[in-house]
Amino acid sequence: MNAKTNVSVNAGNRSLEFQLPDSARDVHCAGEPTDQTLRELVLHAVQQPLAFPELSLAILDDDRVAIAIEAGVPRGPEIVRELVVWLLNRSLPLEQITVVLPSSALDALQAMQQALIEWPALRIVQHAANDQEQLE
Questions:
Q1: Measured between alpha carbons, how far is residue 62 from residues 52, 76, 102 in Å?
Q2: Are residues 102 and 129 in contact, defined by beta-carbon separation less than 8 angstroms?
Q3: How far is CA 101 from the centre of its chain?
Q4: pLDDT digit string, tens, across residues 60-105
Q5: Which residue, 29, 14, 18, 15, is CA-closest to 5?
Q6: Distance CA 101, CA 107 (A)
Q7: Entry pTM
Q8: Cα(45)–Cα(54) distance, rounded to whole angstroms?
């Protein structure tokens, strides 16, 4: 049986607890990660997600992809930007990608729009999880 390590991660205004196998990669950054380091971390996450195959194996040509992100995630807009670049490099059309933000996060919406300004056609929506009318 694989050994497990408990890890606590602060994400925005929440603390998340994970139980990881000891073989999981542990990355520490002194201060803010550079753009290159952030790109490498995002690439590693999509190529080697925990307990899942590589993300590119799960996306078919006609799939729609939603990137949901909580307000307050450190460097969230930059992470989303790297995910969009990764998806576009895999020939997923821009119109099949949607970024989903919480409806209460006006600052997050503005920051996301700025980070993704080079793709004006990219759909960015705000969603209220407790609003039954927004469920499709």
A1: 21, 26, 26
A2: yes
A3: 11
A4: 989 999 999 988 888 899 999 999 999 999 999 999 999 999 887 7
A5: 18
A6: 11
A7: 0.71
A8: 9
